[in-house]
Automatic annotation (TrEMBL):
The keyword Lipid metabolism applies. It comes from the Bacteria. One of its GO terms (molecular function) is ATP binding. This is diphosphomevalonate decarboxylase. Residues 7-163 form the Diphosphomevalonate decarboxylase-like N-terminal domain. It comes from Hyalangium minutum.
Amino acid sequence: MKATVLAHPNIALVKYWGKRDDALILPHQSSLSLTLAPLSVTTTVEFGAASDQVEINGHTAKGSERDRVLRVLEAVRGEAGGKLGPAKMVSRGDFPASAGLASSAAGFAALAVAAREAAGLKADPKVASMLARLGSGSACRSVQGGFCEWRRGERADGTDSYAVQRFDAKHWPELRMVVAILNRDEKEVKSRDGMKHTVDTSPYYAAWVKDAEAEVPRAVEILQRKDLQALGELAERNAWRMHSTAFAADPPLCYMNPATLGLIQHLREQRKKGMPVWFTLDAGPNPVLLTDAAHEVAAEALARACGAVDVIRCVPGGDAELKGEH
Ligand code: DP6
């Protein structure tokens, strides 16, 4: 009746930006990401409580945060045949929410796997991925480790929209992701609102969808041959294109700040001097640098020289992992 699961956040190399169904969280396009270790969220779910309780990082969750968790728990109760009562969920991340990395992706992935386990359901990454998706789209890519592709799917009920692992974490152990925290402030426009605004008002949106969809198989092919330069170039152009569709929204949406652009400029200069380093950028000002093990220390120094207040060096992470069952 009780299970504890650890999951890693993920960084998209081909981003998810925009839903075709807001309620079921179905994307307009496929995306591809990589899980980040050692960052993680650990979540415990226990059925049999007096009422539903949701605790995240030591606080009782309220409003939409609580609703999203209850939605996942409700789906698990349905899958288990309605015999389960209220649940207590306790979740804790080992990295600051202010890191600008969505801890929600790791949190909902851990929740989906833990809740199914606590309910006595047979482990199934595909079903868990769809469950995690109901909490947050990008969470469907954190159920399995390594490199995961979220296939957009075609069906209206979302039963073909889930992430599949293309390569596990051991496929490319030398790859490094260096998170450069330039600004710890909460972003002004959350991804959920920003992507909706972009879908509704950006004239470039259709072009984004078409391009991102075509980039996913190219990214898979590049990952297959572990070509860092090709991957870096693809990740950068995809990030620029996601941000370009957002710049073109009305009113415009800009997640970058001067320090973001300063770092990007510096990175280009270092690249001209032969350093293999590229970046990607989610809906916030903090870039994630892509490099290899031989250059991760230099990448950290580059980030700090550009004003990073904190830097987190990451390696490809593994699957969501069962830590305990009671
Ligand atoms: C820019 O998964 O946080 O990080 O589905 O509304 O919860 P919701 O959004 P979320 O959006 C992530 C957007 C992104 C790109 C990505 O991770 O693919």
